[in-house]
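Sample entry (77 residues):
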Amino acid sequence: MGSKGRMPPPYHHRPLPGPGSGPPHGMMHRDPYGPSMHQPPGPGPYPYDMLPPPEILEQKLAAQCGEIQKLAVENER
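Predicted structure, serialized as tokens:
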């Protein structure tokens, strides 16, 4: 739809960065220290798993709602 006649971004076909020079095809390497060095999978104290308190989410949602209403009024003009 939006990419009609456009080239993909230059980073689209690059291999993922890895330790050292790595293989040219971006294959991930096995962890040399073994799986015991990592925390178990599942919910944990990771930054991407943590959500802000509900009060903060409500404030952000209310602000977004106000902005949407303002833009809708401006769009009708």
